[in-house]
Automatic annotation (TrEMBL):
GO terms for molecular function: DNA binding; DNA topoisomerase type I (single strand cut, ATP-independent) activity; zinc ion binding. GO terms for biological process: DNA topological change. The lineage of its organism: Bacteria, Candidatus Nealsoniibacteriota. This is DNA topoisomerase. Signal peptide: none annotated. Pfam families: Topoisom_bac, Zn_ribbon_Top1. It catalyses: ATP-independent breakage of single-stranded DNA, followed by passage and rejoining.
Amino acid sequence: DAQQARRVLDRIVGYKLSPFLWKKVARGLSAGRVQSVAVRLVCEREKEIQNFVPQEYWTIVATLLKIKNQKSKIKNNEFEAILIKKDEKVIPKLGIKSKKETEEIVKDLKGAEYKVINVEKKEVKRNPLPPFTTSTLQQEAWQRSRWPAKLTMQVAQQLYERGYISYHRSDSLNLSDLSLFAAKKFIIENYGKEYWAGFLRRYKAKGRVQEAHEAIRPTYPDRTPEKLKPQVKLNEKCSRLYDLIWRRFIACQMSQAIFDSTVVDISAGNYIFRATGQILKFDGFLKVYPIKYEETELPFLKINEILKLIKLIPSQHFTQPPPRYTEATLIKVLEQNGIGRPSTYALILSTIQERNYVEKDENKKFRPTEIGIVVNGLLVNHFPEIVDVGFTAGMERDLDEIAKGKIKWVKVCKEFYEPFEENLKQKYQEVSKKEITEKPTEKSCPKCGALLLIRLGKYGKFYACSKFPKCKYTESLEENVLGIKCPKCKKGEITEKRTKKNKIFYGCNQFPKCNFALWDKPTGELCPKCQSLLVKTKRKQIKCSNKECNYRVEK
């Protein structure tokens, strides 16, 4: 019943709203119960970035020297400590706001005595991460290999079909007793008893979970990536993903990593600095599943020890806007808000890119396109519940209640459909396509003399004659001119353009008179060997655009 309700609700939104977008914006667009919320998240993050006002703040770091070094085991007795308190009050992140304020503090600190007032040593234990679910596998594959969610699922499908991993569309953290005992046996035999957790570690998922499947794991824990590769012809991607899944599963049953942590507080008049150190004592699960961590060794220090000030380092900083979403962070926020099911995230991210609602910037982070911003604005203003995070999450909770037999699916669908249908009828009358997609200009049509309009189509804005359909003149709207002269016709300029499949390329704005085009972004500089344009590849390599010239700038 829950599956039936999900299908009905998805079709109500998709089948009803998509034709509305075709009529009011452009053909080929679509709306969806989850995809429209994902687009809204990207649009709102972009708005936050544009509206962000950086705030200045300063930090002060002291380089200090341990004078007596007979008990210190490390060669270098210099270490750094950061200013954390003034007059026994914690200095907040934005506490020191200006250069003038910083200079006054530095003046006070130069004549101060630096004395150790507290030394705290303790063991810090770090737990292994749980085994993979669909969404965490997609996130980790992005973080480690920059794989899109769609690619991760395609590779996982191959591994599943060949019987190397359990079912890969799962939001459960459950593991069978058989797999847990097999992992225990493997760890003790290959790494030693001290590397096993000492108990069968079980994980419980938070929130809405369908427990039909296990977590994603290797079918046989003793089938290591090294053993598997020679036995079967696995392609590189399959090998990499299997390695990741295997390591994560084995690590989740291993012992904790143990660090020796030291925190030292140092007084300097009415100021307090803090130095922190951390050394790995026992690697535990890190032996199999390495995670980045920093090791900082401090010299042996004791309370009341006097230190020598080497230098003070004041640094200016500015607060940063929230980052754009990556595939991993967008999946994470969808899951945290209970929107959609992890098994559908790859399809959702793929769809919103194919519809040209979002695109990836040079750092592979999502930004909304013009059409994405317009469609999102239309839905927010006229169908707010469809793109509301809370409403969509509430609907997912209702679907879970249907699965448990607590609510009838027909009731949920009816309660959603009736007000939605009523609102949709009203919006067909209220919303004007011209207001959304047309903007008058003072430019004249070179074909018939009528005024040109800026129109919005599926792939962005363009100039069109106001006498359409009598006059069908159109002209591209060059908003992404790079300021680089076309090397072929010498008249036009290079602009960022898109193919019908929404792929970015760089071409002359005099097209069709000039057909000069490049896939890689030109830098504006000329090749010293052949005088062709230099381009920057996706791998950030600078090379000559002339295929017959082998010039490239070494990194």
